[in-house]
Design a protein that fits this description.
Blueprint: H1 2-27, H2 34-42, H3 56-64, H4 75-86, E1 96-100, H5 121-126, H6 142-146, E2 152-155, E3 158-161, H7 171-175, E4 181-185, E5 190-192, H8 200-206, H9 216-220, E6 224-227, E7 230-233, H10 243-246, E8 252-254, H11 260-265, H12 267-311, H13 313-368
Antiparallel strand pairs: 1-4, 2-3, 5-8, 6-7
């Protein structure tokens, strides 16, 4: 009987507590802005934290409270829909995707040792990994483990990200202990697939596709610049089509022609790239030969013109003589005419003197009479 009393008392307390909680939820209920639910339904629900909040629900509350509409995963389309609900302009959002700055597969990058520890990049990084390059991809898949869309492929010792599947959540960037993954604009098609900051002579020894800081690409395309010992493409889209062909180590990739997965991992695509590069080099040699021939022809023409001018000085002199004689004749003629003009007043003076003398003779005769 005592047990029944205890059960009854506990049941009564439970009912009372439930009633009190129900009453409190009604009294202290805080109305939530209905727009939060609408915004939350539009967000991609990746709950990746790329926006800086714990999940899409928290981000929706922040947006309704006045936070800028910047969802890296949803991009401009989601931002536009949210802006329509809130009645304000959407902030400009540039779609960004992750990119692995390494193409050092097992057959291109020299191996330093065989790693037998825990098969994670974080653990391998503690002992320096198994490659001679300290800046390359460790290839153990920490990034792939956190990717919510399976956009990352691990093969032949490197990770490759498919930009079409990547949603820009940046979880792989946070998971990589070597910082070999970076976020780039989705519109960018030209990439340098190297992350090494080793001196050029060291980088070339440890990896066949390392950037060796030759700066040829920076002289060819103004969109390339140097950051330490590695070249970086800073353009928003694609650069010159010929930029990958000038790199002596094939460390530049043009995604408008070759997909990243194929360029890094496919031997057939690499062979096709080498053929395109050889054809480009041949065209360049032909163009240089053509320009050299044109310069040589221009120089020969100039030299022939100069030689022709030096070979005919006698003709020039004989042509100049008649003109000199003519000038002399003209000068003598002019002097004679001036003399005639000058002499005419003198003749007039003589005549005047004779006329003066004649009257004097007449006067003298008269006086004699």
């Amino acid at each position: 009987m005592e047990i029944l009393y205890a059960v009854g008392i506990l049941s009564g307390l439970g009912v009372l507590a439930g009633a009190l909680l129900a009453y409190a939820s009604k009294v202290f209920y805080v109305k939530e802005d209905p727009r939060v639910e609408e915004v939350d339904s539009i967000l991609p629900q990746a709950n990746c934290g790329a926006c800086g909040y714990a999940g899409c629900r928290d981000f929706a509350k922040a947006i309704v409270s006045g936070e800028d509409i910047v969802c890296p995963v949803g991009g401009p389309s989601v931002a536009e829909l949210v802006a329509q609900i809130l009645g304000k302009e959407a902030a400009e959002v540039e779609e960004r995707v992750a990119f692995v700055k390494c193409a050092g597969t097992h057959d291109r990058a020299k191996k330093r040792a065989t790693y037998h520890g825990v098969k994670t990049c974080a653990a391998a990084h503690l002992v320096g990994g198994d490659k001679e390059c300290r800046y390359g991809c460790l290839g153990l898949g920490d990034c792939a483990a956190v990717c919510p869309t399976d956009a990352i492929t691990i093969s032949r010792g490197v990770a490759v990200i498919d930009p079409e599947k990547c949603i820009g959540c940046e979880l792989c960037v946070q998971a990589c202990p070597v910082n070999v993954i970076e976020m780039v604009p989705k519109s960018r098609k030209m990439h340098v697939v190297c992350n090494s900051q080793d001196p050029p002579q060291v980088a070339r020894k440890v990896c066949d596709v390392a950037c060796i800081a030759c700066k040829i690409c920076t002289r060819t395309d103004k969109n390339f610049t140097m950051e330490g010992n590695v070249a970086v493409f800073t353009g928003s889209e694609g650069g010159l089509d010929t930029a990958p062909f000038v790199c002596p180590t094939n460390a530049i990739m043009d995604e408008s022609k070759y997909r990243a997965l194929e360029f890094v991992l496919s031997d057939a695509v690499r062979e096709a790239f080498e053929q395109d590069k050889a054809a480009y080099k041949e065209r360049e040699r032909a163009e240089r030969a053509k320009r050299a021939a044109a310069r040589k022809a221009a120089q020969q023409k100039k030299a022939a013109a100069q030689a022709g001018g030096e070979a005919n000085p006698a003709t020039d002199k004989s042509a100049a003589k008649p003109s000199e004689d003519g000038d002399k004749k003209d000068d003598s003629k002019k002097s004679n005419e001036s003399n005639k003009i000058d002499s005419s007043p003198a003749d007039g003076d003589k005549k005047a003197k004779k006329e003066d003398k004649a009257p004097k003779a007449e006067d003298t005769g008269k006086e004699g009479e």
